[in-house]
């Protein structure tokens, strides 16, 4: 690119402030494209919060498939980076029984999506 890391970071911070259900996948793709790791992490954290809604969106399903295909020489049960990051955020702050149940519901929604599109990880 044009070697403007400061501008990239500023744009990343600005985009992080406008994350919502309608733009989360697009912004995650932008973060991946421009290697904005902090924004990418913020996107996957937000995805983890709304995963039950995301699994119903074609754009998200397509992103999961693309991310799986991007893993070179991916074996049937290799991990998918996007899915791994979302799982991490779902389980990272679980401390109470109700939080465990909520996390399990979110993980189940994600697993059901993976099964429906024929992916294992």
From TrEMBL:
It comes from the Eukaryota. The keyword Heme does not apply. Residues 54-120 form a coiled coil. Gene3D superfamilies: Potassium Channel Kv1.1, Chain A. InterPro entries: ABTB1 (IPR044515), BACK (IPR011705), SKP1/BTB/POZ_sf (IPR011333). Residues 25-63 form the BACK domain. The keyword Coiled coil applies. This is BACK domain-containing protein.
